[in-house]
Description:
The protein is mainly α and 391 residues long. The chain is built from 20 helices and no strands.
Amino acid sequence: MLNIPRTLLIITLVSLSLFFLSNTKFPSVNISVKIDSPKKEADVKANTSPQEETPEMKDILGTDQDTRLKATRKLVERIGVEKAQEILERSSLPHTGEGHLAIHQIGFYAYKKYGLDSILMCKDYFLYACFHGAIIEAASDQGFEAIKKMTDKCKSSPTRYFQCVHAAGHSILAMWNYDLPKALSTCDDLYENETKFPEALSSCHNGAFMENLFGVHDWDTNKQQKRDWLSDDPYFPCNHFEEKYQKGCWLNQAARIYQMSSGDVKKTAQICEGSGNDQYTAWCMDNLARQIHPLTQGDPGKVFQLCQQEGADWYNNCLVVNAGAFYSVGGREEAIFICQNVPQNLKEECYQRVIGQIISDPIDQNQKQTLCQKIESPFKNSCLSSFTSVN
């Protein structure tokens, strides 16, 4: 069995359900010039030392996982759900399995204090760990139907809703002890009849397949990892399941292939293209484009060089996907920067994606208008008018 490290790679995958790929391919344009990335203003809060302000931080940043979990629970009980999340997000706690499980404690406490409304208190930090913790606690207390009731509370924002359902997919697989068929069947039971957001079902599948790949919830449990649904076949488990599960699977499969290929983007692209199905290949290449995102180390200017590794047929698609990926993890200005620098014939597609994310973003009206103002004309007007039309 291959060992798959939990790295920042996971962060770029957490919101796959928001960016469903079209069948359109764009002509390739070779970019060889260096593109300077936008410079951010200093974040005063980021420069503060949580260790100095928070007595629990020494144990949270220590090496013992049990001590870390207890200290995180002590922190959230002392200062509350939202403040605890903000402090830990600004700390040096790694965004990996250990950090993820620590933030579960915040979700557990949130459910104890706020019940099903706890999911509205969660932030998207640490791979949506607070969401996962709250959902797991609710299902343990009230059964799987509580997951549906909880995620329904996220419907005021399409972005939040898809992320809540995606988090549910992660949690459901963990609760089924990584029995993937049972988890997918549970997603079906909960979301197959959802009509207002028909992609919700695929988003739940997506979360389950992603959890199957990375296994965040069984990190450091000192138990034998149950991994019946991984193999050395680069097309497994997608080639095991029926058609309705293919989207959720293939939108994660490139991450598996990428790891099996030792991080070789070109080789991963070749294997994706060998799927034998154009739609599967498109989803796989969409996922591969997200492997580019962590390689940029937060610098959107690097996207233009790195995306060339996918090949001429997929270069432009890679740029658009990465604009969306930056936005989905909070890089709103970086996403706009990418669209500003793509080839002219790609700008409309790029801005359509980003504008869609701005519209559905659960931020206030003034923030949305400010983002629209940063977009170049004539796309700025499209952003402003679209925003006005939905309000």
